[in-house]
Specification:
Blueprint lengths: L17 H57 L7 H10 L2 E8 L3 E16 L2 E17 L5 E7 L7
Antiparallel strand pairs: 1-2, 2-3, 3-4
């Protein structure tokens, strides 16, 4: 009691025991560690998926070159017909979209596909990368074909 007949108030500071701090901090650290591991795994999967897609798109360039070579080989002094061009495109995993033949040139558009693996934490799925190219073939003075290939910016996936 104090001099005035009232109960004196005591201020006490309590420090939690080390076991209590561990009990509180352990779940927080575990959650942070799991989140860090998941973020690293996600980053690595995304990097691998991007690399796989780039490789697939590079394969479409190779397919386009092979397609061009085969169309030129098919042409013997004249432009190949639409069905022949369609067949060549299909042999190279492509789809003929447009075929236009005029007196001086043959222009066609082909969409090429390449498959790649897309991984996630839930498994592996197979995706398709596609790229469209416009090809223009012109007969030169010796009746041989000259070609010009242009990648197209817009290309629907259907």
């Amino acid at each position: 009691m104090s001099d005035h007949g009232t109960v004196a108030r005591q201020n006490r500071v309590t420090v939690p025991s080390p076991g209590c701090l561990v009990a509180v901090m352990a779940p927080i650290l575990a959650v942070l560690l799991v989140a860090l591991v998941l973020m690293v795994m996600h980053y690595r999967q995304e990097s691998a998926n991007d690399r796989n897609e780039k490789e697939a798109l590079a394969r479409t360039v190779t397919q386009a070159r092979s397609y061009t070579h085969d169309v030129v080989a098919e042409a013997s002094g004249d432009y190949p017909g639409q069905e022949a061009v369609r067949g060549i495109a299909e042999r190279h995993d492509g789809r003929l979209i447009a075929y236009a033949r005029s007196g001086g040139s043959l222009t066609n558009t082909v969409r090429f596909f390449a498959e790649f693996e897309d991984t996630s934490m839930f498994g592996v799925s197979h995706s398709r990368a596609h790229r469209c190219y416009s090809f223009e073939f012109r007969l030169d003075a010796e009746r041989g074909l000259r070609e010009r290939t242009t990648p197209l910016d817009k290309c629907d996936a259907a």
